[in-house]
Specification:
The complex is a heterodimer of chains A (112) and B (113).
Chain A lengths: L3 E3 L3 E4 L5 E7 L5 E8 L3 E8 L6 E2 L6 E7 L2 E6 L8 E8 L7 E2 L3 E5 L1
Parallel strand pairs in A: 2-11
Antiparallel strand pairs in A: 1-3, 3-8, 4-5, 4-9, 5-6, 7-8, 9-10, 9-11
Chain B lengths: L3 E2 L3 E5 L4 E7 L6 E7 L6 E6 L3 E5 L2 E6 L4 E6 L8 E10 L5 E5 L3 E6 L1
Parallel strand pairs in B: 2-11
Antiparallel strand pairs in B: 1-3, 3-8, 4-5, 4-9, 6-7, 7-8, 9-10, 9-11
Classes of the chains: A mainly beta (112), B mainly beta (113).
Chain lengths: 112, 113
């Protein structure tokens, strides 16, 4: 079974802090994704990566950056956290660009 | 523009059949997917329709009609554990030759005894 893990289930940070969210997958998938999920808005794509050291902006990249130094790890970085970044953050991976994505358990981030 | 619309909530009783519809206003997409998410859990992939027609996987079936810009998820013999949110999603071409998933806002299904 594919396993996607995220470093924290719950995280509380203060406005202006730099926040790192880590995601690791163990199935050698090339494709990895970061989403945020907010009530009534579904999942929105922040960034994605189809290869090591490769990254592409999604629909809502502002205020975020990513890093993919190794195939299995995809990190989401909030350079200076703001209260409107309070959300559930979901990482996903897939073996192919057109098949189902496997999601991690999510990190619920609260920015005070 | 691009958007997917699905009902926000659906209720049903155990043992019944329920259909969750998804209509979309987007073109040039590769297929329609469905995901299930229980409260506090991660979305899990249920099905993918690359072509028009019905795909069946156990108690769940998914349907796509590109000409009608419409799809649905059909859940049969409902069980209490089917209470969850269900999201439809389409793959669309994105920048740089890549594809991305666009999700609907989700339908919350409540199954009652």
């Amino acid at each position: 079974d594919v396993k996607v893990t995220q470093s924290s289930r719950y995280l509380v940070k203060r406005t202006g802090e730099k926040v790192f969210l880590e995601c690791v997958q163990d199935m050698d998938h090339e494709n990895m994704f970061w989403y945020r999920q907010d009530p009534g808005l579904g999942l929105r794509l922040i960034y994605f990566s189809y290869d090591v050291k490769m990254k592409e902006k999604g629909d809502i990249p502002e205020g975020y950056s990513v890093s993919r130094e190794k195939k299995e790890r995809f990190s989401l970085i909030l350079e200076s956290a703001s209260t409107n970044q309070t959300s559930m953050y979901l990482c996903a991976s897939s073996i192919d660009r057109l098949v189902g994505q496997f999601f991690g358990p999510g990190t619920r981030l609260t920015v005070l | 523009g691009q958007s997917l619309e699905q009902p926000s909530e659906v209720t049903a009783v155990e043992g019944a059949i329920v259909q969750i519809n998804c209509t979309y206003q987007t073109s040039g997409f590769y297929g329609l997917s469905w995901y299930q998410q229980h409260d506090g859990g991660a979305p899990t992939f249920l099905s993918y329709n690359a072509l028009d027609g019905l795909e069946e996987t156990g108690r769940f079936s998914s349907f796509l009609s590109r000409s009608d810009s419409y799809g649905y998820l059909l859940l049969q013999e409902l069980q209490m554990k089917d209470s969850a949110s269900y999201f439809c999603a389409v793959f669309r071409p994105f920048s740089g030759g890549y594809n991305k998933l666009i999700f609907g806002a989700g339908t919350r299904l409540a199954v009652h005894p």
